[in-house]
Amino acid sequence: MHNDIVCGEPIKQVVLPACKRKEVLQMAHEIPYEELTYRDRIPIQPIVRPNNPFEVWSVDCIGPLEPRSRRGHEYIVCAIDLCSRWAEAIPAKNITAKTTCEVLLKIFCQTGFPPKTICTNQGTNFTAQLTQAFQDVLGVSPRFSTPGHPESMGAVERWNRTLKDMLNKNIQEHGNEWDVHLPYLLFAYREIPHTLTSVSPYQLVYGRLPSGPMTILKEFWTGEREIPTGAARSVEEYLKQLQKKLQDAHEIASENSAKNQERMTSHYNLRSREKSFSVGDEVLILMPSSMHKFLNTWMGPAKVIKLTRPHSCLV
């Protein structure tokens, strides 16, 4: 056993014998991550991490998915909190503005509302009058990404890719029952320490470690018994300790977030170079060539008429 303390929680890590490693890897559903490389990069700046959970959400949709679920779901509305990296994924039969608003209300009723900002792309369900009215009523400030540039939506785009990998494995086994298994996939994602914060989303939100399948397996192997929370403590003592654990977790997350963002930004910028344009320059624009978002083509030439901000031009 390896003993340690993280965010006030005693951690006992089992040193696995070789005969048990395959079993643990299969249970954990380890997902290989593949990073994409781009030839035409410009330097990026890390997005500032909010101080409190559920203040700033990044929202996107994936689908249509094949196969459609037995309940008629073929889309998923995905959302991720930029502070804790707490992820949500709600199955939907369509992604109209009305459905999108209903899904967001469902999420905010659980996590607290209204949030300060909702970040989305410029899909019609997000820019529609109904969605704007919904945001106006809640007093939420919308923030839209630049078309064709998902970099500012990196958190939810990364969550989308992870979810698709998890769904791919799940659909192979369960077919059109994938929507029933979404809560289990979400739990698996939330209990794992995030690369950016080095703390699990679950611990950042609840201030304690989750009791998932891996914990149960470890306790079974080691013969540990679960002691009920608060059995030997008063409510006041429990709340004080919970507050301290949350504070410690957020301090660790803030420190790791800043360090990892700097590391990832430096790594990304290694293969980038500064580019600039002037008013009057003729440029090419990468635009969708059809309704399919993956089919793009260079169009132009267009003339730069205004420099709006670094790396952004009005043509």
UniProtKB/TrEMBL annotation:
**The Integrase catalytic domain, residue ranges:** 49-209
Q: Which GO terms describe its biological process?
A: DNA integration
**Keyword annotations for this protein?**
Coiled coil
Say which species the protein is native to. Answer: Trichonephila clavata
Highest taxon, organism lineage? Eukaryota
Spell out the coiled coil positions from the record.
232-259
Q: Which InterPro entries match?
A: Integrase_cat-core, Retrovirus_Pol_polyprotein, RNaseH-like_sf, RNaseH_sf
Gene3D superfamilies, per the entry: Ribonuclease H-like superfamily/Ribonuclease H
Signal sequence range? none
Q: Name one GO molecular function term.
A: nucleic acid binding
Task: Kindly give the PROSITE patterns that the UniProt entry links to this protein.
Answer: INTEGRASE
Q: What is this protein called?
A: Integrase catalytic domain-containing protein
